[in-house]
Amino acid sequence: MEVQGSHRRQLPVLLLWVNGLMTLGFAGARQRTDLCNESLMLEKLPACGKSFEEMMRKVDSKKWCNLTEFIMYYDNFTQCTEREANNASCFWPNPLAEGFITGIHKQFFSNCTSEKVHWEDPPDEILITLILIPVMLTCAMITLVVWCSKRSDIL
């Protein structure tokens, strides 16, 4: 009896120890303890912007709002900013990288506005039809269910 009580008291300690090992990365997860070198990241990000700017010169400025014209260039830009942030031991996206990316967006895409779609109601004939069909079907189904439940002798 004493031995079982001793094991029961040691079980929570053992569970806490295992939990601690798993949290520290013993189970295969790796924790990053490097600090973000923001100055290095801010020093390297302009090279990504310069490369993107050179690639965008190949695209007619009238087509800058059409993503299909430059999607590969933008993908390279995104990968470059992510790589430079990771090289500086920073997560991505982070506020500094987002600020840089926003600056690039303002430079190239400030004239791209989304056109607002003006929604209109359909004509009254169509609207009434779209409302009445489900109402009539619902009424018909209710009538059918009630009629069939009263005539259980047939079923």
From TrEMBL:
Sorted UniProt keywords: Cell membrane, Disulfide bond, Glycoprotein, Membrane, Receptor, Signal, Transmembrane, Transmembrane helix, Transport
Membrane topology: Single-pass type I membrane protein
One Gene Ontology term of the molecular function aspect: coreceptor activity
One of the GO BP terms on file: G protein-coupled receptor signaling pathway
GO cellular component, one term: receptor complex
Cross-referenced Pfam families: RAMP
TM helices/strands, residue ranges: 12-29, 126-148
InterPro entries (alphabetical): RAMP, RAMP_sf
Subcellular location: Cell membrane
Family to which this protein belongs: Belongs to the RAMP family.
Record-given protein name: Receptor activity-modifying protein 3
Organism annotation: Scytalopus superciliaris
Classification lineage: Eukaryota, Metazoa, Chordata, Craniata, Vertebrata
Gene, per the UniProt record: Ramp3
